[in-house]
Amino acid sequence: MKFQAFGSEFKTLICYDALFMPSFFDRDYDVALVQSNYGVFREVAGVRAYNHMIKISNILSWFSGASNGKSYINVENEGGSTFFGINGQMNDVGFFDSSQKKIFTVIMGEN
After folding, report:
1. What's the CA gap between 83 and 54, in Å, rounded?
2. β-bridge partners, 84
3. Could you give the CA distance from residue 6 to residue 84 in angstroms, rounded to a whole number?
4. Whole-model pTM?
């Protein structure tokens, strides 16, 4: 699904969809917004393995869906949300950690 906000075109994906690279010509969006649920891994593997797996899976899905200069936001329902800027720079650890402690993370655009 695509939608417009803050003057940008967003494409929404579910976690496993983000791992399959779309055609280069099908990337007519500015921001890839991915919602994922890796909660079962946290229960089975523990917090440390969960955090590692979240970071690795986000790098893989960024590469497949946004590595051509698009921004990438992964919203993880168990915490561990991740943001990649248009240059591929991963967000700082504070954003990842705060999303595990706070119910909501709000991303504000400029007018």
Report:
1. 12
2. 72, 90
3. 17
4. 0.71
Tokens (6 digits) for 79: 């915490």
**CB atoms closer than 10 angstroms to residue 82:** 23
Separation CA 106–CA 97 (nearest Å) = 14
Contacts of 52 (CB under 8 A, 6+ apart): none
Helix, strand or coil for residue 58?
A: helix
Torsion of CA 90, 93, 96, 100, to 10 degrees: 170
For the chain, the average pLDDT equals 75
Hey, CA dihedral for 77, 100, 89, 106, is it positive or negative?
positive
- Cα–Cα distance, 109 to 4 (Å, whole number): 12
Both tokens assigned to 32:
């890839």
Per-residue pLDDT reduced to its tens digit, 15-46: 777 777 666 566 778 888 888 877 777 778 88
Listing from the earlier edge strand, what are the strands of the sheet with 31-36? 2-5, 8-14, 31-36, 71-76, 82-84
Q: What is the 3-state secondary structure (H, E, C) of 82-95?
A: EEECCCCCECCHHH
Domain boundaries defined on the chain: 2-101
